[in-house]
Amino acid sequence: MEGPQRITGTDMLTFGEGRKTVTDLYREELARILEVDVRRVSLYWKGRVALFALLKAMNVGKGDEVLLPAYTCVVVPNAIMYLGAKPVYVDIERDTLCMNVSEIESRITPKTRVILAQNTFGLSAGVDDIARLGKKYGIHTIEDCTHGFGGAYNGTPNGTVCDAAFYSSQWNKPFSTGIGGISVVNNEDVLSNLDRVNSDLVSPGVYETINLAALQIFARHVLDTRLYWSLVDIYRKLSKTGFVVGSSSGPELEGIMPNKYFKGFSQIQAKEGVAQLRRFGRILGERKGVAARYGNALEERGKRCVPRCLYGNHSFLRYPVWLKDKKRFFDSARKARVKVGDWFMSPLHPVVNNLERWGFNEAEYPVAVHAARHVANLVPDVREESGTLALIESEASNIL
Ligand SMILES: *Cc1c(COP(=O)(O)O)cnc(C)c1O
């Protein structure tokens, strides 16, 4: 029906009443999908930068505390710590892998400024309760929708219940611009602060932009199952050496703020975003269908699966499986050339050592620590379906 959008020349298009840049067009398309006014949508180099901007717009600073799930990416506590604030973790629930709402209140102190709710693997859970707790204690709330773009919570688009939300369009996320971040703000005071905060964004440099183009090509081919494992190996090596713009650079894995972290969005990302969003609705529908079939296959074998009552709030970026021996599962997947996700390989993915540096004490978060050891995530992509179903079959004795 709708082929990829071609945008040519100067990136200027004539639309209706006037001329718009491809960035305007991208923001409008995002606003339409998220059912918000376009002035609420801001764009950033990465999702973590969007989070940093939101925290800043919520006046988070030295000595403040931010509550977040104990099962997340290290770049999330990083954004908090770069502001001099303290990440305070809340354990997750086994069934949802999202923050355990009943443990939030015991972590609130007079220093708490923000509660961060995360749509783990695409599932939004307890968001109304978190928003209510925020109101009760006069604390702002943010949804980490990096896994949940395009999904919904009780019929409302993900990211519209709390004061603000951020999204990622990194190559692994619901749709990809190579790397990229989005914020949506529902609270007027935060929105006016954010405009001020955003004026400090630096522009991506020429080198980064060229590198990003290479990453976009990589991301397109990573979608090709046959090349996945070899490409991932190459990518990890290159991003470790700083040769390509990887998801996380060396300093970020040590909790140190990289140079020029607070970076804005580029036209090349917007261009890819517009093209990707045209096929997004179809892909989201396919994902849910494949995930439901993974769920059936697990259920038939009496394995742990996503409870059906949660399907309505799940956009199934990934489908979690619980394993006895995670390493063995990955070895089998690699051998069979089946794409399987290894997030979260630690409670603060992908850092495995010295979690105390991020204020994380493993003994306090038993569910998150257990999940990091035993959960892998299946990829609900039509191109992976038969391979993944075969893997569920051959690894059945390893699945809990
Ligand atoms: C990927 C991810 C982020 C950060 O997104 P980037 O665009 O890579 O900065 C934040 N939170 C979670 C849970 C993620 O998976």
What does this structure look like?
There is one protein chain. With 400 residues, the chain is α/β, with parallel strands linked by helices. It is globular, with a radius of gyration of 20 Å. A hairpin with a 2-residue loop joins β9 (152-153) and β10. It contains eleven helices and 16 strands. The strands form five sheets. It has a seven-stranded mixed beta sheet, sandwiched between helices. A three-stranded antiparallel beta sheet has the order 13-16-14. Strands 1-2 form a two-stranded antiparallel sheet. 37% of the residues lie in helices and 16% in strands. The site of pyridoxal-5'-phosphate has 16 residues, from α2, β5 and α3. Pyridoxal-5'-phosphate binds next to α2, β5 and α3.
Please sum up the structure shown.
The protein has 400 residues and is of the alpha/beta class.
Q: What's the SSE blueprint?
A:
Layout: E1 12-15, E2 18-21, H1 22-34, E3 41-44, H2 47-57, E4 65-69, E5 72-73, H3 75-81, E6 86-90, E7 112-118, H4 127-137, E8 140-144, E9 152-153, E10 156-157, E11 164-168, E12 181-185, H5 188-198, H6 206-222, H7 225-240, H8 267-300, E13 319-322, H9 326-335, E14 340-341, E15 348-349, H10 366-374, E16 375-378, H11 385-394
Parallel strand pairs: 4-6, 4-7, 5-15, 7-8, 8-11
Antiparallel strand pairs: 1-2, 3-12, 9-10, 11-12, 13-16, 14-16
Helix pairs in contact: 1-8, 2-3, 2-5, 8-11
The site of pyridoxal-5'-phosphate has 16 residues, from helix 2, strand 5 and helix 3.
